[in-house]
Amino acid sequence: MASERATAFADDFAAANAEAISFVQGCSDEAWAVVVPGEEWTVGVVLHHIAEGHALGLSWIGSMSKGEPVTETQASIDAKNMEHAARAVGVSQADTLALLRENGDRLEALLRGLHDDELDRTASFGPAGGREFPVEAMASVSAGHLRGHLEHARGVLAPT
User: Fold this and answer.
1) What is the C-alpha to C-alpha distance for residues 126 and 136, in angstroms, rounded to an integer?
2) Residue 60 belongs to what H/E stretch?
3) Does 159 score more than 80 pLDDT?
4) Which of 26, 97, 115, 144 is the most exposed place for a label (fewest CB within 10 A)?
């Protein structure tokens, strides 16, 4: 049986992903092309990064919940982010929405299905220098990563 903690993480993530979906649906073409200070990517690239990040979270949490290490390093993640930014320059809102939904549903389902023993497990986490990192912390970061980027994108489009 899944844990109450897992349900809370899944609910929080689902709510954050719904916010991202709603934000994308409300973006004009002009807003989609605005560069987000601090990210140095357009709103469209930032939102697509969020959607692709769901797949990374799925991989990491899935591995860590089995006690398997995450071997990527911060440098390799930074390089992948740079590659993604170049590749995603012309990404459409429709493609981003589809990816937010697809990857979001998959990550939510994984989170929802975690058991307490899996949440309590730790595994070596390469981006943190290989330190042991609890699955529960990764589960909580799922919504936090999304919200952080979403707030940056919202902030650049907020009326002054």
Assistant:
1) 16
2) helix 43-64
3) no
4) 26
